[in-house]
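Quick one, tokens below:
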């Protein structure tokens, strides 16, 4: 082959590629939208999962663009995306004009990766149908049913902490809290006593950790598959790690078969899903929800695990980290817990836990300052004329809502780095924009398990504070450093704190 011809071909392809990318990166400029200059090949997500945590990455972009328009332009690789900068515009996306933004645009491949077909990821009518089936399993009545299971695990949790506190030891509290939530979820979702507090290296716990471990390449892969879903499905690519998928599918098959064979019924999430799978209804309710397949059951139970395990343990970790630095707030919280417990004869009844208003304020402020899911993703389903502007968001454009940036916006929360639970008194919440706090999302796609997550977190914190004082230790990371390889917000290297008996 003529060497000159090869050289000309290569140069031509390089020039064509350069011009193609250059044209792609002029998308927002041509439309008069403020944007942050992208860097090839990653666009505006360079450093994600490596040198920079996603929360900081998008918060920096938000700060650069804030005040210039109702949204700004960014790029995922060469694909245009937007970042909302105005809360009224955000309200349109999440609620008012939800029909344009009802999908998250997350990669789903149910055929080759059954666990990917869960409520969080599904789109369109599939999502709507499944949401209708699952909503009745998360009512206050069903939460009350599971409450006693959480309390039983919490009692074991208190026993585990007692010898540590008596010795005034410092502990890696994040690990202990993860074991607590693993035992809660294991019981409530699978009906399995994991005993993670006593045996931290169980298979259930090891696999649970693997779900949230991400390298920089895996972060990029998730975004890539979200943008090229048909390509991913054609190549039979999976989003769930093979060992995770194999473990959960096997566990659920064995558990459901055993329950069927022995006619076992429990007050847990799996039992409710099995009712829907077999009859399309929940016991005591004639509403026809429609049956679900075993694969659908498996995916939803898997979602229940990943949504309740890491998020709640991280929320409690950040709350205790802040309380260790603010002993006055901790004392006030302990006083409330003891007062409520005295009213209910020392029992953590469902009603007692629902009266812990200041604990709720602490949880809300912890999630404000440290939102575990730091961004919400949506995909525009059809061309959308942005109200009050000349802008049109084209079909297929991603919307990246930086929850972390909104929660740290000084125009919304003055002195945002200050930990202040009184931001969430009834009066202060009423005086703030209703879409200024978004740790669970908002609108029709708000987290269906929010009640359960709050209940689990409330019980965990109350059980610790009623018996123990939480203090800083020489190993406590001040200031906080985030783990950039974790899919959710989590402290790097864990969280070392000191416990002492009250």
């Amino acid at each position: 082959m003529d060497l000159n011809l090869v050289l000309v071909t290569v140069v031509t392809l390089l020039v064509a590629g350069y011009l193609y990318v250059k044209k792609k990166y002029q998308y927002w400029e041509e439309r008069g939208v403020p944007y942050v200059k992208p860097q090839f090949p990653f666009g505006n997500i360079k450093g994600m999962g490596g040198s920079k945590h996603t929360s900081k990455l998008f918060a920096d972009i938000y700060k650069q663009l804030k005040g210039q328009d109702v949204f700004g332009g960014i790029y995922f690789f060469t694909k245009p995306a937007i970042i909302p900068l105005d809360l009224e515009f955000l309200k349109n996306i999440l609620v008012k004009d939800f029909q344009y933004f009802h999908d998250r645009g997350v990669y789903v491949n149910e055929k080759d990766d059954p666990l990917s077909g869960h409520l969080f990821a599904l789109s369109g009518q599939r999502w709507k149908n499944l949401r209708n089936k699952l909503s009745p399993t998360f009512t206050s009545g069903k939460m009350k049913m599971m409450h006693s299971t959480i309390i039983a695990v919490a009692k074991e949790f208190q026993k585990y902490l007692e010898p540590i506190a008596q010795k005034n030891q410092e502990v890696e509290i994040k690990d202990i809290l993860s074991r607590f939530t693993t035992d809660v979820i294991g019981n409530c979702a699978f009906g399995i006593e994991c005993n993670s507090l006593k045996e931290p290296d169980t298979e259930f716990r090891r696999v649970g950790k693997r779900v949230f471990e991400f390298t920089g390449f895996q972060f990029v892969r998730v975004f890539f598959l979200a943008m090229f879903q048909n390509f991913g499905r054609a190549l039979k690519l999976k989003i769930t790690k093979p060992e995770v998928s194999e473990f959960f599918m096997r566990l659920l098959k064995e558990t459901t078969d055993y329950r069927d064979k022995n006619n076992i019924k429990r007050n847990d999430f799996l039992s409710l899903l099995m009712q829907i799978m077999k009859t399309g209804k929940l016991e005591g309710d004639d509403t026809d929800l429609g049956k679900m397949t075993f694969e659908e059951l498996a995916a939803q139970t898997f979602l229940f695990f990943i949504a309740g395990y890491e998020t709640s343990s991280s929320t409690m970790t950040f709350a205790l980290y802040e309380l260790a630095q603010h002993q006055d707030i901790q004392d006030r919280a302990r006083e409330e817990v003891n007062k409520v417990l005295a009213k209910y004869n020392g029992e953590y009844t469902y009603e007692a836990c629902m009266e812990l208003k200041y604990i709720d304020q602490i949880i809300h402020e912890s999630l404000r300052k440290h939102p575990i899911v730091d961004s919400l993703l949506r995909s525009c389903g059809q061309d959308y004329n942005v109200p009050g502007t000349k802008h049109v968001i084209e079909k297929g454009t991603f919307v990246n809502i930086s929850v972390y940036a909104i929660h740290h916006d000084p125009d919304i929360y003055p002195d945002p780095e200050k930990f202040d639970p009184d931001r969430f008194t009834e009066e202060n919440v009423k005086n703030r924009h209703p879409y200024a706090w978004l740790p669970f999302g908002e609108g029709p796609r708000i987290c269906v398990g929010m009640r359960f997550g709050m209940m689990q977190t409330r019980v965990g914190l109350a059980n610790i504070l009623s018996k123990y004082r939480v203090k800083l230790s020489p190993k406590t990371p001040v200031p906080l450093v985030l783990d950039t390889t974790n899919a959710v917000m989590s402290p790097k290297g864990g969280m070392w704190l000191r416990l002492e008996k009250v």
